[in-house]
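Lecture notes, continued. The same structure-token format from the folding unit now serves as the input rather than the output. Read the line below as a description of shape only.
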């Protein structure tokens, strides 16, 4: 059967259908669900999808349900090892708590970056954290 499917990007995904997968998106979101279908553009249909939020050794899953993911937004796709998943030393906490912790860490990171930018500017370097610079 495998010899009948040409080895292309979409053809190599056939082994992942009906398996639990982790999808990483361009915006940094991590989605976990059962891959039910895909097409030649790597658009994915996930069933029982959740968004996994994590902060250090804590995590929370936000239920989504059925989700269609546009292929151009996918950075990585991989199968979840169901046995190894049970051995991960992460502690589940409510989504509101983890969102607050992530927001606090982001504010701290922004404050640190402002200080770093000022120090670097005093040394003659230009910051590259401005949105228009990277395009």
């Amino acid at each position: 059967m495998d010899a009948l499917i040409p080895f292309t990007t979409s053809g190599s995904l056939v082994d992942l259908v009906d398996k639990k997968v982790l999808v990483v998106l361009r915006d940094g979101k991590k989605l976990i669900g059962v891959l039910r279908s895909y097409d030649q553009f790597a658009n994915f249909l996930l069933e029982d999808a959740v968004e996994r939020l994590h902060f250090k050794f804590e995590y929370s899953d936000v239920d989504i349900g059925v989700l269609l993911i546009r292929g151009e937004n996918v950075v990585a796709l991989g199968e979840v090892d169901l046995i190894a998943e049970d051995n991960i030393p992460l502690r589940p906490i409510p989504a509101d708590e983890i969102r607050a912790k992530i927001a606090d860490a982001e504010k701290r990171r922004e404050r640190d970056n402002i200080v770093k930018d000022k120090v670097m500017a005093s040394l003659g370097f230009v910051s590259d954290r401005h949105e228009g610079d990277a395009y």
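Point for the exam: Strands lie at 20-25, 30-38, 44-55, 58-69, 74-79, 91-92.
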